[in-house]
Amino acid sequence: MPEVTFDAILRLARLQSGTVARRDESVDLASLAASVHEILQASAEGKGHTLDLDLPMMPIEVQGDEDMLSQALTNLVANAIEHCPLPAHVRISAGLRDARPFLEVSDNGPGIPEADRARVLERFVRLNASRSVPGTGLGLSLVSAIAALHRAELVLEDNGPGLRALLVFQPRAQVATVLTKV
């Protein structure tokens, strides 16, 4: 566990300081979501949860680093699997929201109180309810740093019951404009 924690701290520090080079490639969020679902489905079922997938029939493309985005989505799904009481229903989705590409992980667990949603994005923050579950309090701060590096937003919303975590990206036309001006 100490090596994993050190690696996570180091990666987060590099992301937040801007010293990590981000690959800039076309990433299909629907394909990425399907890959993460395939990898984590057995783990979710092994814990007594269901992990569903809700994807559009068309690709949802963004510019970014596929490995980093996969890590962010994996962290969100792993958090839902770890912090939801049995039996939980976790869903991975991708699509467009107001013409903005998104990745979503939603669950029917206890959620995060609205007053704590900004705080859980900070390093090492763990809410009292999650202290009985192994963890470092780095997962959501790492997701937030990856989102920022991709000019995306990490949005935590009530799922009534549960939590909905969204990575919402800039519209494709805006991203192309920003990249050509840099």
Protein architecture, described:
The protein is an alpha+beta fold and 182 residues long. The chain has a single domain, classed as Histidine kinase-like ATPase, C-terminal domain (Heat Shock Protein 90, 2-Layer Sandwich). Helix content is 40%, strand content 23%. It contains five helices and seven strands. The protein has a five-stranded mixed β-sheet with strand order 2-4-5-7-6. The chain is globular.
Q: Which strand-content bin applies to the residues?
A: 15-25%
Average of the residue pLDDT scores: 81
Class by alpha and beta content: alpha+beta
CATH topology: Heat Shock Protein 90
Keywords:
two-stranded antiparallel ribbon; globular; 182 residues; alpha+beta; Heat Shock Protein 90; 5-stranded mixed β-sheet; single chain
Question: What is this structure's SSE topology?
Answer:
Blueprint: H1 2-17, E1 25-28, H2 29-46, E2 50-54, E3 61-64, H3 66-83, E4 89-97, E5 100-107, H4 139-149, E6 153-158, E7 163-168, H5 172-181
Parallel strand pairs: 2-4
Antiparallel strand pairs: 1-3, 4-5, 5-7, 6-7
Helix pairs in contact: 1-4, 2-3, 3-4
Q: In summary, what is this structure?
A:
The protein has 182 residues and is α+β, with helices and mostly antiparallel strands. It has one domain (2-181): Histidine kinase-like ATPase, C-terminal domain (Heat Shock Protein 90), CATH 3.30.565.10. It has helices spanning 2-17, 29-46, 66-83, 139-149, 172-181; strands at 25-28, 50-54, 61-64, 89-97, 100-107, 153-158, 163-168.
